[in-house]
């Protein structure tokens, strides 16, 4: 026994035996495994948009100008009632936008209750989610990721828990509730879903809901003009969006409509005035509301400029990038050195523009900054007219409009641009994977698209 052991040791250590290649082979295999794992985990996972649905408010929630004015006069007096009418007439909103039940009461105005906020949230969110599940045939238990962004209403349990409970989502669902992030949060949710897909290779389906619930501290009951302006602009709205990653394509899902190309975020909140230009505060009587500074457009222009410089480098064709850089470093007017005087032609990078419908001045401002045509901002103006400022969901109503008009062709590129408190400027860029059928039955635009575009007051 002892001898055989010795002879074995001799055999493997003898100089005449071939060199022991086991450790080298082991190391090589291990390195190859590490490399494969690294490539697998760092491979960019594609993200697709299966479909989306926008909430269509019920007729009884409609707010014609005359009712809004009368309501304002009865509650706040003639002066403020007329002020609100003046804002409304300049706002770009039409006669069919909607407010929740609470906002239709005349004195004594009921205080917004948690139950009332929940009712509105359930109506908006469940209607949109029901519709997108119906359209895609997705079984709710297949959903791996759930993200809801809602600026002003964040109950406990959260809005995501409300959806988990209603649709009986799996116990392993990864749910995230984003609040207080304003109107530019739509692309933030898309970006979060993209990162979660990347970090969880087995996750195949993500449901995103973007909404603002008006029966909440967002609805202002005081007399401060800068806070009453938001009551004039914000309206009921919400969108449910189903995203998928290649993992899920084994299942019998519909062919996706769009592929996500880019998500880009710009935050200028480090500057105090930019941070405060859209600000939730209490007035001198303790009424909570959102104060809109008259300087919003100035701060929005600064954030937009920074954002476009970064976005341009991602999306513009090379010659357009070079022209832009040349104007930055070698401007015709030497005083402009270090600032780009050339406005890049973003229409060379996108076929469709969905600019946040924050108010007429917001759409005008972006149109001017980018040198866009009236037709290029048509979706924004019409979404503002028909549905009002629906916060983070406005960019989805705009894509819905473009689809309902039958304008989306295979390979078209779509730019969703969110602008909002922070101050933030965020983009999501999509490429369409097929011609998108026009007006769909039951969709938010289904019963009115033929009347649009409508002429607007100057
Ligand atoms: C409010 C407007 C519709 C008003 O239109 P015009 O500017 O063309 O008209 P105008 O100047 O005659 O204004 C009409 C009346 O409103 C008053 N007014 C206007 N803006 C005001 C403000 N911020 N605070 C107090 N009063 C205001 C004017 O003084 C005037 O009063 P008088 O008649 O008494 O002289 C527009 O300026 C607009 O669209 N602004 C942008 C709104 C905005 O900030 N949207 C972003 C929302 S937040 C968002 O979407 C994102 C987020 O929350 O994250």
Automatic annotation (TrEMBL):
Give the GO molecular function terms: acyltransferase activity, transferring groups other than amino-acyl groups
Concerning Pfam families, the annotation shows:
Chal_sti_synt_C, FAE1_CUT1_RppA
GO BP terms? fatty acid biosynthetic process
Q: Where are the transmembrane segments?
A: 20-41
From the UniProt record, give the pathway where this protein acts.
Answer: Lipid metabolism; fatty acid biosynthesis
PANTHER family from the UniProt entry: 3-KETOACYL-COA SYNTHASE
Active-site feature positions? 183, 267, 352, 356, 385, 389
Q: What is this protein called?
A: 3-ketoacyl-CoA synthase
Q: Does the keyword Acyltransferase apply?
A: yes
The FAE domain covers 41-327
What family name appears in the similarity comment? Belongs to the thiolase-like superfamily. Chalcone/stilbene synthases family.
Under the cellular component aspect of Gene Ontology, which terms does the record hold? membrane
Enzyme category, top tier: transferase
Q: EC annotation?
A: 2.3.1.-
Keywords for this entry? Acyltransferase, Membrane, Transferase, Transmembrane, Transmembrane helix
Q: Which residues form the Chalcone/stilbene synthase C-terminal domain?
A: 353-423
């Amino acid at each position: 026994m002892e001898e055989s052991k010795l002879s074995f040791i001799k055999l493997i250590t003898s100089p005449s035996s071939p060199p022991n290649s086991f450790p080298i082979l082991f190391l090589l295999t291990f390195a190859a495994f590490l490399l494969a794992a690294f490539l697998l985990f760092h491979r960019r996972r594609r993200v697709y948009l299966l479909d989306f649905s926008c909430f269509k408010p019920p007729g009884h929630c409609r707010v014609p100008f005359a009712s809004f004015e009368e309501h304002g006069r009865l509650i706040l007096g003639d002066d403020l009632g007329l002020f609100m009418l003046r804002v409304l007439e300049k706002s770009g909103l039409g006669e069919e936008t909607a407010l929740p039940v609470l906002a239709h009461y005349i004195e004594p105005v009921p205080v917004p209750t948690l139950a009332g906020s929940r009712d509105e949230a359930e109506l908006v969110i469940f209607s949109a989610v029901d519709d997108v599940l119906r359209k895609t045939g997705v079984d709710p238990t297949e959903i791996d990721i759930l993200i809801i962004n809602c600026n002003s209403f964040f109950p406990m349990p959260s809005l995501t828990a409300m959806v988990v409970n209603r649709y009986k989502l799996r116990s392993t669902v990864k749910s995230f509730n984003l609040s207080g992030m304003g109107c530019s949060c739509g692309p933030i949710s898309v970006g979060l879903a993209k990162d979660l897909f990347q970090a969880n290779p087995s996750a195949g389906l993500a449901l995103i809901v973007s909404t603002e619930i008006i029966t909440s501290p967002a609805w202002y009951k005081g007399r401060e003009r800068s806070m009453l302006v938001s009551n004039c602009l914000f309206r009921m709205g919400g969108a449910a969006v189903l995203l998928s990653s290649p993992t899920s394509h084994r299942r019998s899902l519909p062919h996706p409509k769009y592929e996500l190309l880019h998500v880009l975020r710009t935050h200028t909140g480090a500057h105090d005035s930019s941070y405060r230009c859209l600000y939730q505060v209490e007035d001198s009587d303790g009424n909570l509301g959102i104060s809109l500074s008259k300087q919003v457009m100035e701060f929005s222009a600064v954030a937009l400029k920074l954002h476009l410089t970064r976005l341009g480098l991602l999306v513009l064709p090379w010659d357009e990038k070079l022209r832009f850089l040349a104007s930055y470093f070698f401007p015709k007017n030497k005083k402009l050195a270090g600032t780009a005087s050339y406005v890049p032609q973003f229409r060379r990078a996108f076929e469709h523009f969905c600019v946040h419908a924050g108010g007429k001045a917001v759409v005008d401002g972006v149109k001017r900054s980018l040198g866009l045509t009236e037709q290029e901002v048509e979706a924004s103006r019409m979404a503002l007219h028909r549905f009002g400022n629906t916060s983070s969901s406005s960019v989805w109503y705009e894509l819905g409009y473009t689809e309902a008009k039958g304008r989306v062709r295979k390979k078209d590129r779509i730019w969703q641009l969110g602008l909002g408190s922070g101050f933030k400027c965020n983009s999501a860029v999509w490429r369409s994977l097929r011609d998108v059928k026009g007006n769909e039955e039951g969709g938010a635009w289904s019963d009115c698209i033929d009347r649009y575009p409508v002429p607007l007051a100057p």
